[in-house]
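Human:
I keep going back and forth on a fold encoding question. Comparing notes only helps if you start from a blank page. Show me how you would write down a chain together with its backbone fold. Write it directly below this note and I will take it from there.

Assistant:
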Amino acid sequence: MNKVGSLFTAIILSTGLASPVLAQNLTAGVKGGIGFADLGGDFEDLIETSTDLKTGFSVGGFLGFDLHRLFRLQGEVQYVQKGAKATEGDSELKFKVDYIEVLVPLTLMIPVEGTVAPRLYVGPSLAFEMDCKVKGQSGGASVEFACDSEEVGAPTNTTDYGILFGGGIDIAVGSGAVTLDVLYNLGLGDIAKEDPTDPKIKVTNRNIQILVGYGFRFGS
């Protein structure tokens, strides 16, 4: 957690020091919402069945600087739940992995008149694993194990990275704005830890999020 906080602080400080003007156009706030995740790569081959979207939640905060009236650079830190779900008959398997994730989207502010401001964004993401479990249910009974336990034997890499794409709107309310966002985070890293005794297996995260929040506006 301390490493993540230090990284987020470094992002903000380096951005703010780049231009004194940025400090005059600051947005800070919180957001949270629901996510629909699955796993790409070789995951379906490993479990030998198709997967469904796994529902999870996320919550976090953000800090943004206006670089220009059309562009904003933002830093975000989220607690986010990812993974995948597979069902066959009355049996269900869930792969649940939770992260602290740092997002740095570059945002295009679309100029319109009125209280509703649309925007589009793209940027990198870096995630730090907090927990990983596999849960199985069948016939009313359930079991749950850590991913790296002997029962599961699926250790994961504790960091992941990717790229995010999204869009949203800001609705002016009071001294700030209500934010509504839809984003897709495509994992590029391999979360399956390599076993030298087995062929190389690659598993990647994919996650769609619907988020709502509120941002406070500072400066001009």
In short: The domain at 2-219 is CATH 2.40.160.20 (Porin). The first strand starts at residue 25 and ends at 41. The chain has one domain: 2-219. DSSP finds two helices and ten strands in the chain.
